[in-house]
Amino acid sequence: MELTLSRVTKKFGKKTALDSISVTLREGVCGILGANGSGKSTLMRILATVMRPTDGSILLDGKDIFQLDADYRTLIGYLPQQVGYYRNFSAERFLHYMASLKGLTKAQANKKVEEMLQWVGMEQHRHEKIGKYSGGMKQRIGIAQALLNDPKILIVDEPTAGLDPKERIRFRNLLAATATNRIVLLSTHIVSDLEYLANNIMIIKDGHFVQMDTPTALLKAMNGNVWTVATTNELLADYQQNYKVGNIIRRENGIVVRLLADEKPSRQAVKAVPNLEDLYLYHFDDLNETRPISLHQN
Ligand SMILES: Nc1ncnc2c1ncn2[C@@H]1O[C@H](COP(=O)(O)OP(=O)(O)OP(=O)(O)O)[C@@H](O)[C@H]1O
């Protein structure tokens, strides 16, 4: 199965949210990595056919998804960033409602709702109202509804935003278990979501396609660009001014800075093994703005 995007463009008035994206997606998890506002949700909405592109085409095995229409929609599962849950519905009622919208028969729905409630560990909460659920519980019901029709293409938009670490890991594990024999598209700006999950990572920036490759290949390309440097408080500002700086670790006898540089930034710098945070920092340069630098006290 192949989903082929050719020159997919989306404009909102003068704003170009997606600019001529061409890429082919195959089975496995593809993580779409981009800073806030880079166009991830727009791309997901278009792939879910909630929105049409201004230009370009998307073919599923050679057929236009908008022409396939309902035949395409029966193949997809979509968990949007914001789900309009019915707060007064219980999980069980909500899943039955979604199953009927997806065209499952009563017998199919009974079987699938039961299976999903158990799979996401919500069987004990099935009669409670969704309005009372935690963020993580809502996301588990969200992924359950997306999988009711056993979709061949699963689209999940920033599913772990706002979840606590335990729920995030739980959700990631659920997603990992769904990845065989489907195209799974997962948008995120949280790199750790992709570490264990993604077969491929697509990087988009300001609506542009930057690159797509396996995490291993993306990290290999950064070999020799990531360094750690033991320094002092006084010299820290210099490094921050001249390099993209990631984690700063404070130790009793000084500071260790992780930074990106094409060449050895100082005599005492030591080459580090690149990780996905470095990749994010390399492309987006806004680690310091979007997330506070973690100050580990050793
Ligand atoms: N309906 C809309 N009308 C006007 N502009 C929009 C609309 N939807 C998105 N945009 C703009 O398009 C750009 C891409 O937005 P999009 O929501 O796709 O980004 P994103 O990467 O998903 O961001 P986030 O991580 O914050 O959700 C942004 O500049 C956004 O303001």
TrEMBL record:
* A molecular function GO annotation: ATP binding
Q: Does the keyword Nucleotide-binding apply?
A: yes
Q: Which domain of life is it from?
A: Bacteria
Note the CDD domains from the entry. Answer: ABC_drug_resistance_like (cd03264)
Q: Where is the ABC transporter domain?
A: 3-231
* Keyword ATP-binding part of the UniProt annotation: yes
Q: What is this protein called?
A: ABC transporter ATP-binding protein
Tell me which family the UniProt entry assigns to this protein. Answer: Belongs to the ABC transporter superfamily.
A Pfam family (short name) is ABC_tran
